[in-house]
Design a protein that fits this description.
The protein has helices at 11-19, 44-54, 69-82, 115-130, 150-159, 177-188, 206-216, 239-244, 252-255, 258-262, and strands spanning 2-6, 23-28, 37-38, 58-61, 87-93, 135-139, 142-143, 166-167, 170-172, 175-176, 194-197, 204-205, 226-227, 232-233. With 264 residues, the chain is of the alpha/beta class. The strands form four sheets. The protein has a seven-stranded parallel β-sheet, with helices on both faces. Strands 12-9-14 form a three-stranded mixed β-sheet. The chain has a two-stranded parallel ribbon with strand order 7-10. β4, α3 (69-82) and β5 form a beta-alpha-beta unit.
Length: 264
């Protein structure tokens, strides 16, 4: 299989390049990737030209920009329109939902409360209309092992005394980037269509998550400042998708255990 990965310089994109057992063509926007192709997903003509030249059998679309509708929504639509016969896996987000006490399942319709969530929800709707057999893979906070994910960098900054705080009322289902990448590659090769939830099985507050990252990295979790913040409990129920996968989506307390630091 010839695979095109958009957003190849991001945390998830880099992991997909490492993990894919296929011929992979990385697509990047500003930071060059060896063997890759430059691609501005906001430009429909450019997307069509790249996909025509690469001729991929599959596409995993990870590219987004949180504060830019054109990249997050229009870019995803452009990729779907140009995909042709390529199998598309679109990486979406738990931000398509708003806070509530119960976890969200795959069949539930988006109800975003943020501009970013609205952009991802619009992209989902358009892709499902254009390519009904595409996979809409919703995920949550992505954590790595090299200290380069957004949450890991934030832990280091706040532990060093920079301004900011972790919210105790902000709850998500973090997933390890290696687990997520493996699951997306499985979904790419499967006959699954429609929405799949690919998040960790354990819900943690941002403060709990930050403290566990700090402990794993040998930092003092007590140095991390916290505030309640606006209540925001958004959890994805990934049990149905997990039953379809060989990849095990590990809980954060497992992949952030102190022992995991020794195996990195």
């Amino acid at each position: 299989m010839r695979l095109l990965v958009t957003g190849a310089t991001g945390l998830l994109g880099r992991q997909l390049l490492r993990a894919a057992g296929h011929e992979v063509v990385p697509a990047y926007h500003s930071q060059t990737v060896p063997g890759g192709v430059k691609l501005d997903v906001r430009r429909r003509d450019e997307v069509r030209a790249v996909i025509r030249d690469v001729r991929p059998d599959g596409i995993i679309h990870t590219a987004y920009k949180q504060d830019d509708w054109a990249t997050t929504t229009d870019g995803a639509v452009n990729v779907a329109l140009a995909a042709g016969g390529a199998r598309l896996v679109f990486v979406s987000s738990d931000a398509v939902f708003g806070p509530r006490a119960a976890a969200f399942e795959e069949y539930e319709l988006p109800c975003p409360t943020t501009p970013y969530g609205a952009a991802k929800a619009a992209a989902e709707t358009a892709i499902q209309a254009i390519l009904p057999k595409a996979v809409i893979a919703r995920t949550s906070l992505i954590i790595g092992s090299d200290g380069l994910s957004e949450e890991e960098l934030r832990v280091r900054r706040l532990a060093a005394g920079e301004p900011g705080a972790f919210y105790t009322a902000n709850i998500r289902c973090p997933v390890h980037v290696a687990d997520l990448a493996a699951a997306l590659l499985e979904l790419l090769s499967s006959d699954v269509a429609g929405v799949a939830h690919v998040a960790g099985p354990e819900a943690l507050s941002r403060l709990e998550l930050g403290r566990r990252i700090a402990i794993r990295d040998g930092l003092d979790p007590g140095t991390l400042p916290s505030v309640p913040g606006e209540p925001s409990d958004i959890r994805l129920d990934s049990r149905r998708t997990q039953e379809l996968l060989h990849t095990r989506l590990r809980p954060a307390t497992e992949f952030l255990s102190p022992a995991s630091r020794l195996s990195r």
